[in-house]
Amino acid sequence: MKARVKWVEDRTFTGTVEAGHQIVLGNAYGESGKPGPSPMELVLIGTGGCAAYDVIHILEKGREPVEDCTCDLTAERATTEPKVFVKIHMQFTVKGRGLNPAKVERAVQLSAEKYCSASAMMAKTAEVTHGVEVVDTAA
């Protein structure tokens, strides 16, 4: 895996991955405003993306009728440098017709304990917790 981060101006950067996908990131404030997510916001988004990917993959493999999944993340950072994440809460909302709540909870648990490499890295400095809400769209 490779990526490149290039400085544009002020505190604005572009990040590019091997496949050519690109994102603007930075904390530049001024006339143009904030150009994109900060690096730490991207770390948080990546953690949620990794976990949500696992949950969907596990539920689809189990033939669960999943229609939607969101992962809302709330994080706290240390007050001193380096300001690592010290708490991360991941709240999953999974929707589908007749989803088995136990299977959804198990998918989140498997992601947290076995599959999500981003969560595993974050757990080295942060207390990572999870919540699950299952919404039956047939109701």
Automatic annotation (TrEMBL):
Pfam family, one: OsmC
Domain of life: Bacteria
Protein name per its UniProtKB record: OsmC family protein
Species in which this protein is naturally found: Albidovulum litorale
